[in-house]
Amino acid sequence: MTYLGKLLRKFTISFLAATFSLFLINGLVYGLYINFLTSSHNQNKVQTVLETVSETLSQSAPKTFRLSTDSQKLLEANNIWAMLLDNQNGSVLWQSQLPDHFPLRYSSTDIAKFSRGYLLDYPVFVWEHANGLLVLGYPKSSYTKQLSNYQTIASIKAAPFFLVLILLIDFLLLFLLYYRAELRTIRLLQPFIESISQLAQGNAINLQATTPLTGLAEEINQVSRQLQKKDSARANWISGISHDIRTPLSIILGYSDKLSRHSDLPVNVQRKAAQIAYQALKIKNLVTDLNLASKLEYNMQPLNKESIAIAPFLRQITVDFLNFDLDDKYDIDCHIESIPAHSSLLADSSLIYRAMENLINNSILHNPKGCQILLSATLQKDNFEICVADNGVGISADILHKLENQPHSIMSDAGASQQRHGLGLLIVKQIMAAHQGSLLLRQNPNGGLIACLRFPICYLS
Amino acid sequence: MDYYKEKKILIVDDEPELLELVVSTLKDSGFSHIYPATDLKAARLIFKTEQPDAAILDVMLPDGTGFDFGQEIRKQSDIPLLFLTARGEAEDRLTGLEMGADDYITKPFLPKELVLRLATILRRAYKNENPVIPIAAGVIDLSRAEVYKNKQTIALTAKECAILETLYRNSGRIVTIDALCEATWGENYFGYETPLMAHIRRIREKIEENPSAPVSLITVKGLGYKLITL
Question: Do the chains contact at B25 and A301, CB–CB below 8 Å?
């Protein structure tokens, strides 16, 4: 969801930027238009023409007027007719290009009407001349005239407010439209984002997308299927290999073990056979571990959760190790007094047994001279721990850090340069991850190592 | 010689070398009636003619699976079945145990592990045949629920017999308090730890020379008990 939040924030910022630039561009274009109106057509502006004509129209004799050649040319070029009306009686004193059917005398009513509008459909403009009223008639349909051009002062004063209001409404509308569009996109994308993050965690997905993204959904599903197929192929490959190794290994292990116990053979031959049997056992454990590790890694190990009574479970593990005959070098015991009697854990008992076995075997393996091993269970505020503590040689803080934080060499892409260790701890980590728990390693204050399986408290009942 | 070693054992595995190894291992351990087969056809014939007392079955066979054959056997008989498989999958183990297998060994295995497991399931299946247990102070006869000590016969209660039987089946090994309670009182055994201790004390009075310094029924503190037989 944080990903979507980021997306939304980005969208909002880009929306603000887009709106701002939109208004800016609008303002610029409007400015350009005004500039165009005021500057480029300056010379042809009605008022200029009126002024020019008025200035260059002079009385040469009583009742005779003359217009300069330049002005005459200007009128002709723009197809403008002109006339000068007498101030007293409204008769035409002078005219230029006046259409034939025009009357030659105008009443003051006529003048009042056309001065604000049209004369026989010609848009006309008037100017005060020293000898009367100068009237210019532009070609039909060249100008439009507003017959009323008055506004109340109050409405002019309110204009800025309305302008801002209109802009605000525009802005709001734009924002809503934009927001809706983005929300739709995000809603459309959300299942994709979630699925891809599921994929990244190695889980299988099945996207059900509506149009127009069905194609994309199908492709992502295809990717998921491909990945799943690869994972299962890898796990199957390992299980196939381990299957094929098991039978020949049984024969090696079986006969070497027999030979090592064959009293007719010389002692050194018996010892060598025992070595072979020991190494075969190591391969056996490796094969079993590899198989389990790959299954856990690719989520192919089914989790059979059941209620495990903790105290009997820990006692059984302890006894199983004691019965296995530890040459009396290892003193193994369990302390379960600190947890409520009859507490039980919801987990896959064979996997948890396996995890405990691996931890105890680790203690045994790293302490060939023997040590005390103590199993214990402790209840904490938010979690529950089962620990295996030994008082053996322990490990350095540096190695402890590496064990906890570095991926195992078979899961890592860092190459073969790093130190390799067994799969035991990796399996424990995987088993705990499958139970939403974790493996914690720490140095024992009394020397040695403490390894704890930490479960969320909800697994306890 | 242990009584169960006289039992007829059917072994089915399609790998001749492995079959030979298993046969020789069992022979070396004292089993005298061993019937090997490399496929189900031969196995069915042996099962019909010899009526074995136990079967060790490989899961993957050329003409079927050991599970199928196990089910066939189960329809007619409840002899102990032990599966031997190259597949280590947990589901396989579950399938095997669900269909009534008595145990399940994953290859590769140590010969002595096979012998131990076979002995355990045979003892469990044919437990009544030799119930006389020799101990330091005398002899325990579970079939008659009696202890013979210092030329005296002492009677055992049913619960005491049940406890001793569980201990005897695992003699030499520690049995947890929980396993003993479960075997004696059934699945809901919580809260029986104290009665168990009382029973153990009474058993010691009957079978030990000196009950306060036991040598046959040993306490492993906090964990369980162990029966030492001669």
Answer: no
